[in-house]
Amino acid sequence: MRKITADWIFTLATEPLKNGVVILDNQGTILDLLPNAQGLEEVEKLNGVLCPGFINAHCHLELSHLRDRLPQKTGLVTFIKNVQQFRNAADEEVLSAIEKAETEMIANGIVAVGDISNSSISFSQKQKSNLRYHTFVEVFGFNPESAEAIIERANNLLRAAPQTASVTPHAPYSVSEKLFKLISNSELSIRNPQLLSIHNQETIEETKFFEDKSGEFLDLYKTFGLDISFFQSSGKTSLQTYLPWLGQAKTLLVHNTFSSQQDIDFAKARGENYFCLCPNANLFIEDALPDMQLLMKNQLPLVIGTDSLSSNTSLSILDELKTLQHHFLEINLISMLNWACKNGARFFGWDDLGTIEKGKRPGLNLIQNLENLSRADEVKLTAASSVKPIKLCKNYF
Ligand SMILES: [Zn+2]
Known about the structure:
The protein is α/β, with parallel strands linked by helices.
């Protein structure tokens, strides 16, 4: 049994506990939470804030070997061309990068991951269950004629995926209406019927393409030799075009860098949509950030992802939060932890993770080097803030 106290415990389920104590068994299950350490013996005293393990809601393990390989701030269209050009590599190189990436996530306090897969190469690592994974088997295919063959291949991949998995569309500009509809009707997604993910409004070029068939995406299709004469612009933004094709599925909208109030209203009126922020990838690729005031004003269910090492220099949820803190000074730590822990667990249906509550086994992170520790709702991250996962047992999952 362990008894641990810190300046604050942000349980994300109760009021923050100043100098509270969390009691855990040897497997990391929470046995009790106490308001103070009075009368207790052998209490470990730590400096900083204790919070649950992080949920990385958006990652691409299979692109980990592209770390430090692609130029930054090129814009999304050039970035996609670069990924396609450089992603092929020997299996050993890819597998070794995947293993290292997972080790890095564990060291950074991540306990569970929503991971995008276009192939089965990450499955052997996920099979080891060092981390909890939901695999999004992601499909591309803008030409409607190939939709059936694509979904069949994806369903085969889905059957082979360890832990939980579902078939998911890549992005509005890379998936045909027909393929969108096949995905949302895919019977084989039954292992997690409600979970979809899509790269949404990551660049203004996506809006131009859907509103009037203009912008840089035309050049991308030309590069890939795809005749898109069949495509007619909808006159609406991408989100307002494709969301009705997805039915009522629970969907993770990833990036949202160029989403407007009208888009948010549209999404709120349809299905259960979560909004995933990957700020470091947005700066890496587009040198832009989502409109945080807009997203927060709308009280959206926000979650946090790292995206892949092809567009990030680390796989660290804390690094994403530090970037948000740096650019949006008014956000407090406790709000961001709700996104990074509680909301992520809720999206994926991981009821045992995301909050520090009796009976749960959420993992425990210690965040240090903070500002304004005297009041819970004023605690902020600094450039020097760091996270240390509390080692609770050998094999966590
Ligand atoms: Zn991504």
